[in-house]
Target: SET domain-containing protein
Amino acid sequence: MLAGVPGMAEEIQEEETLLKSPTTSPLTYEVKLSPGKGLGVFAVQHLHRGTKIIIEAPLVSVPVPKMVPGQGFRILDMISSLETAYEVLSPKQQEEFLGLHDFRFPSEQDQNRLLTIFRSNAYNTGDSKVGLFPKIARINHSCSPNSGNWWSEKTDRRVIYAARDIEKGEEITVSYIPLLKTTKDRQARLEQYGFICDCAACQSSESDKRRTKIWDLLETLELKFRSPSKKTSTNDKRAAKAIHLVEMVEDEGLTDYLARAFHVAAVLSQQSGQLNAALEWAIKELEIHQLAEKASDEALKTVALIESLGGRRRP
Ligand SMILES: C[S@@+](CC[C@H](N)C(=O)[O-])C[C@H]1O[C@@H](n2cnc3c(N)ncnc32)[C@H](O)[C@@H]1O
Model:
């Protein structure tokens, strides 16, 4: 599929080289104090949507421990693998590790420091591992983040990219948690980081209602993928609801969920026989995936959808 598109293999190769490069240039960000949040990461110039802000390999990466039924995994089970990973770091890298933010609950004053630092800063590194990225770890959370946060399986790098245009001087934010929850539920998830989020979404009951509606609609419409109705009118209604879903996600500024909403609109438009509309939605979905990585599995699946709809789109 890739070989057939002139120039595409080179573009993908170029991006892989960029993702593997140790720094991002030209300089896009600086680290400085963010009032009430400790350090934060700020744009030093206007960043266009899609700009790769930080590309980073993990300093350490350890396996996720076995799941405990009803509890997920227990962070305490990571102590020995963390200590082993820490010991093989150079003194400079150890210093980098220990310099990261360390949130601990009052009851944890004697807790192993590697563990509490890790819990305060870690991101996943694939499906079965979790890691520390010292540069990315300086990025603070928002429930309406301006940046996307992507693990590239192909290059073993985490990529932070502008999910919308970001003004010079604006703080770069990502989300630490799933965002289609009410403020109360989000705050509960953020407890492990020791702060109460006061972003605009956390101040708005309208936002809570909309996020709950978006979640319900997403779940309901995705369930329809496997069972298109025999009635045209039902399929048409579902396609109309999908467009409403996209509008709500856009109004809420939830860039993390745009690709998913566009995908729902593409599939349900296809099921209602609106192939041109389906193609347009699928192209929008591809554009979002490609902000993170041109030839990610998600992007390639969407290229296949576009082709099945009779479109031609470069992966
Ligand atoms: C991964 S670190 C982020 C960088 C951190 N501010 C620092 O100084 O290194 C996570 C910590 O940053 C702070 N933080 C992140 N987002 C915040 C927010 N929206 N409001 C207040 N504090 C926040 C909390 O202390 C949290 O435990």
